[in-house]
Amino acid sequence: xxxxxxxxxTDHPDDRERHDVVVVGGGPAGLQAALTLGRMHRRVxxxxxxxxxxxxxxxxxxxxxxxxxxxxxxxxxxRAELATYATVEVRDVAATxxxxxGDGFLVGTEAGNVATRLVxxxxxxxxxxPDKPGLDGLFGTVAAHCPFCHGHEYAGRPVAVLGSHAHVxxxxxxxxxxxxxLVVLTDGGTLDDENAAQLAVLGAxxxxxxxxxxxxxxxxxxxSFGTGPDVEVGGILVGTTFAQSAPFAADLGLTLLGSGCVExxxxxxxxxxxxxxAGDLAHxxxxxxxMSSVLASAAAGQLAASxxxxxxxxxxxxxxVPA
Length: 323
Ligand SMILES: Cc1cc2nc3c(=O)[nH]c(=O)nc-3n(C[C@H](O)[C@H](O)[C@H](O)COP(=O)(O)OP(=O)(O)OC[C@H]3O[C@@H](n4cnc5c(N)ncnc54)[C@H](O)[C@@H]3O)c2cc1C
Fold this sequence. Notes:
Elements: E1 19-24, H1 28-39, E2 44-47, H2 71-82, E3 88-91, E4 95-101, E5 104-109, E6 112-121, E7 125-128, H3 135-138, E8 143-144, E9 158-162, H4 168-175, E10 181-185, H5 193-202, E11 205-207, E12 211-216, E13 221-225, E14 231-233, E15 235-238, E16 241-244, H6 248-251, E17 262-264, E18 275-277, E19 282-284, H7 294-317
Parallel strand pairs: 1-2, 1-6, 2-3, 6-18, 8-15, 9-10, 9-15, 10-11, 17-19
Antiparallel strand pairs: 4-5, 5-6, 7-16, 12-13, 13-14
Helix pairs in contact: 1-2, 1-7, 4-5
Flavin-adenine dinucleotide (FAD) binds near residues 28, 123, 293 and 297.
């Protein structure tokens, strides 16, 4: 029996013209999704607008075999792997709209509309930093929002945690085994009793004056205050606020969680049949927060892509795959 098969089975008259899946986004989630779909000989189009969450970072960490690799190099390796799969096409163009169209979708681009049976959103989120002079230029190297990604790099030096929010104590505690000493910069804010107690246990210094700015220094960064002496640190942990990079989740009316991310089941299915989501823009409700990392995003892309395959098999052949 021959196993050769280059087209998919379907009853839809337009399916020779349609993609099986349009993947919107070419970060780790979208790249991995396209690889999984390409390996299953599905006709997949990946659209990439060219802006990535970790653009500010020189290096990415905490991904086995890629620890310390420049993010752009990681993506270039991914693109090269995709190029070996005949049914995968990558276009460096932004999607401008995603709208339901019969039993599929029309994805608008600057170069015209693309018809697809399924959509996999992997458009990520974008960060906004506290508005402090100099902080922007340090973000991704000396300043970071995630101690798993950038923390070890500050080892053996003083580390600052910026803010007086509810998680300051937890963030400081995570950095305690790494930093030579900890200083919390409340920037004029007040710590609640719980956080103050946690910081006392850690022996962290607390500076309560408003921070007037940051600049790069030999050790890492110099912090200036409205009053009082400067502090020099090897790294700064700073919380960001983030928002969806693209409007498609809102446009399609997808259910969002309190995190601001698209609610997905563990296989990346959203509240709208035919639309899947993976990576930083998505959140499995059972998890305490969106699991934002390169590896977690790639893994989510793989799962969502396999759910797309299952959906196509169910539609075309009536095969129900436990996914
Ligand atoms: C400063 C910083 C450093 C980080 N360092 C690390 C680290 O060391 N290790 C780690 O594991 N994680 C790190 N992260 C987290 C990591 O960057 C993200 O978890 C990961 O990039 C998420 O992947 P993604 O594919 O979901 O989104 P992204 O990588 O953000 O990719 C989104 C994709 O969607 C595309 N897109 C958006 N809108 C459109 C549109 N309209 N049309 C077409 N395409 C569109 C973009 O062009 C891009 O291709 C870091 C984050 C930051 C902010």
